[in-house]
Amino acid sequence: MDWNVPKFPLDTLSDDGLDWLTDHGAWLTRAVSRSVSNWIDTLTTAIVSMPPWAVIAVAALATYKIGGRKVGLLTLAGLLFLWDLRLWQSTIETLVLVSLATVMALLIGIPVGIWFALSRWAWKVFSPILDMMQTLPSFVYLIPALPFFGLGAVSACFATIIFSVPPVIRLTTLGIRNVPTELVEASDAFGGSATQKLLKVQLPLALPTIMAGVNQTMMLALSMVVIAAMIGAGGLGREVWQSIQRLEAGAGFEAGLGIVILAVILDRFTQALAARARPHGSA
């Protein structure tokens, strides 16, 4: 028996929605695109213009102060190795893109996570959207970024922000909700306002979990660098993407190893920050 069910026009509706948003929001996206592009170019140019040995020394000293001797030596050895591989400019481009995307994701994600922790209806309504965002293939995030911002680092930055923001939202919510009820009730009993309770009890105790979210967000942002290179982002991702197109396995391996080295350095650095945020006496 033939059963000719009409196709639901999801593709047409999506195209129409994107066209409408592009037509009516082009003025805003162009302004944002120019600003973000200027930030990326200015920051990258400023760091690249400095002597690499000076940047490496400052980075190693900063990570040593925060994470100790092991993290400082790891940073020193890793960045020196990337400089020796002639990947210094690509490394800085990647660091700038990942840092900017991570900062923007945290500025969005932490307040949203606090809102979800304090509002049960908001969590119930939006948690399925977070589930969807964490299960969508990462390539899908490139689709809405292109009509708004075109090819280049700005599209890559926005796609990376959207891809990497769910963990910090989820872990901020989880950290605040897991604060012991007795401590929250004690704050209420002493007449603390909602703001005082949040700033002096819930956020300090949730800080280690929030820092775990920061770590996950940064790692996800770094995992997007090769995919982002497909829409014009520079950095180590572009080196990997070009080596794939040219069948240059050695160059691709070098750039891929560079991404791994950056991931290890950033992971150990954020873990050290999380350890510092942990309340004294906790594991």
Question: In short, what is this structure?
Answer:
With 283 residues, the protein is mainly α. The chain has helices at residues 10-49, 52-67, 69-84, 88-118, 120-135, 142-149, 153-177, 181-189, 194-223, 225-229, 236-246, 249-277.
Notes on the protein architecture:
There is one protein chain. The chain is mainly alpha-helical and 283 residues long. It is 83% helix and 0% strand. The chain has 12 helices and no strands. It is globular.
Order of helices and strands: HHHHHHHHHHHH
Helices and strands: which structural class? mainly alpha
Number of strands: 0
Shape: globular
Low-confidence runs of at least 5 consecutive residues? none
Q: Describe the oligomeric state of these chains in a short phrase.
A: single chain
Largest sheet: none
What portion of residues belong to β-strands?
A: under 5%
Question: Strands, helices and their partners?
Answer:
Layout: H1 10-49, H2 52-67, H3 69-84, H4 88-118, H5 120-135, H6 142-149, H7 153-177, H8 181-189, H9 194-223, H10 225-229, H11 236-246, H12 249-277
Notable traits:
283 residues, 83% helix, mainly alpha, 12 helices
